[in-house]
Amino acid sequence: MSEPTMPRYRVIEQALRQRLRDLPPHTPLASESQLSSEFGVSRMTARGAVTRLVNAGLVYRESGRGTFVAPPPSNRRADSLVRFTEQMRREGRAATSRLIASGARGATAAENTELRPGKNGVIEVRRVRLADGMPIAVEIAVFSAALSALLDADLTASMHTALLNLGRVPSSGRATVTAECATAEDVDLLGIPVGSAVLVERRLIGDQHGHPLERTESRYAGDRYGLDVRFAVDHS
Fold first, then answer.
1. Which one of 31, 32, 93, 198 has the largest count of C-beta atoms within 10 Å of its C-beta?
2. Residue 136 in contact with residue 220, Cβ under 8 Å?
């Protein structure tokens, strides 16, 4: 059975994403007419590809002037979960992790409900995420003990890659964000003053089959990280 063909607008989008990695902010993008000729598609198809890049925040349009490469976002969009390593790369910063602790333990009631780990409990990985050597967040990631092979991976490297190597693809999820007072551990690991505010994001992520995969709490230094929100105004 042959593989399904990727829509042409997606082919163009992926090609442009590759180009954007090497272009500085505010560089003009090829016009829709030029893209139409280059890829042998209609201008409507070319426009659809560019619109997807606009919606992703990778390029911006100026009326009467054209489309340009967007500067790297300083914050993450609240409606998407970009991997920390990838986000820092887009900002031109080097992402690293420092492992604090990892191991198996019994599941809490909430973890039993959301991860459904069974009688074997869960594994927990606690790390500090850094950008250019500066602590940005304390991250506590919890998985079903069925994924105990994660503990054999390099936990200072990409957890995303380790999950992919186990055949689990983080695909979708939900999150809540709150502002809280820093704990003693936050103060120590992030190097922030006592009484500081931290941005706390609690996520439940599912895999490519819709199965619960990861329950994570990320505690960000309030003055070092932010979330951008896009919204429509409700006139009801």
1. 198
2. yes
Closest CA to 128 of 218, 38, 194, 59: 218
Tell me which of 51, 69, 87 is where a domain ends: 69
Q: What is the DSSP string of 104-126?
A: EEPPPHHHHHHH---TT-EEEEE
Count of domains observed in the chain: 2
Same-domain check for residues 44 and 107: no
* Residue span of the structural domain in which 31 resides: 8-69
Per-residue DSSP letter, 91: T
- Report whether 111 contacts 142 (CB < 8 A): yes
Q: What is the CATH number of the domain that holds 47?
A: 1.10.10.10
Q: Which of 117, 125, 171 is nearest to 146 (CA)?
A: 117
Q: CB neighbours of 226 closer than 8 A, spacing ≥ 6?
A: 74, 75, 76, 199
Chain segment 175-220, per-residue pLDDT in tens: 999 999 999 999 999 998 999 999 999 999 999 999 999 999 999 9
Q: How many Å apart are CA 7 and CA 65, to the nearest integer?
A: 28
8: phi then psi, degrees, rounded to nearest 5: -60, -40
Which is nearest to 69 in space by CA: 18, 117, 116, 118? 18
